[in-house]
Amino acid sequence: MNLLVTGGCGFIGTNFIRWLLTAADFTGKIINVDRLTYAGNPENLTDIEKKFPNQYIFVPADICDKDKMAAVFDAHDIDTICHFAAESHVDRSIVAPDDFINTNILGTFNLLEIARARKARIERFHHVSTDEVYGSLGQNGYFKETTPYRPSSPYSASKAASDHLVRAYHATYGLPVTLSNCSNNYGPYQFPEKLIPLMILNAVDEKPLPVYGNGKNVRDWLYVDDHCRAVWDIIQQGSVGETYNVGGNCELENLTLVEMICDGIDKKLGRSIGKTRDLITFVKDRPGHDLRYAIDAAKIKTDLGWTPETEIKAGIAATIDWYLENPTWVTRVKSGAYREWIARQYATV
Length: 349
Ligand code: NAD
Ligand code: TYD
Hints:
7-stranded parallel sheet, 3-stranded mixed sheet, alpha/beta, globular, binds nicotinamide-adenine-dinucleotide
């Protein structure tokens, strides 16, 4: 397999590449294409590059660049695509949606066109999407693969558009696509703008922990390695043209989750239990804030035998440990220091 991974220097892409090469039965080649936005850090994979020189290649490129991407497909004889690259943060999409439209919609369209032109060679185009395309649930019910799309934010609307394009390329051109719509991921290497790493790092520094609104919004938390296993299962065994919802079976109100993190930090740093909770600060709500996400993951369980394995308390403890054990990564990411390294290393990006 010559596997093109887009966005492999981001949170989930990094974990996916590491997992494939160190924990799964992957024997092919991975070509990681990433534009190295603020969220893309190639330092995440420098050890992998050294350890697997015959199986891993990094190509700095923008998925919107038609000529460059076509050249990558041809140079590496790409037969399988796992498409993670995206602008991924809802709050940024509210402030500045342009990049979301370009990367998430036009970038995906570009990859589909390049794959279509090489259809005979393509075995699978897997598109990684989000449960946020379904919009908000009330107190009851679950997102199924058949739930109508009703995105609320520019981020989720751009992901919804990309999902429609991917399905259309299967229906119209017979491109062998699969899609996954997953819930909120957490784990190592997540950029500290998202809820869990932001709370961990602020808690360590004894800074305020900003909870939007009343903290009663519900998310379904999925440990990133469980998600990586689901994506690989779908690429290997999923049926062409199908969508699979992937969830952690772990619904929590934001406030409950933040309190769990606070207590984990107290335990880890030897603070008196309850001390870190004093940092919780309720702030103005996010506009268009979806109340509740919850995934019905019955299809992937029945069809592919996948279920999430990581229990939330163990996953949060492992995530806290990772952030505490990697202060250099944290400092460099927070200060943007790795961007200077990128500029030296990849002068043309
Ligand atoms: P991330 O923001 O951490 O990483 C995105 C990566 O894509 C970065 O490395 C960035 O440099 C790269 N990228 C952005 N624009 C690019 C472009 N034009 N060309 C090439 N590379 C580009 O995101 P993530 O959390 O790892 O999410 C990965 C995928 O999973 C996204 O498609 C996202 O919508 C989806 N997803 C994420 C979550 C989550 O909880 N993180 C949940 C559901 C779905
Ligand atoms: P986030 O990690 O941004 O993921 P998403 O918006 O894609 O679900 O946010 C998760 C939840 O946490 C969401 O309900 C918004 C909330 N939140 C806060 O309360 N405070 C914060 O500082 C952030 C970043 C998020």
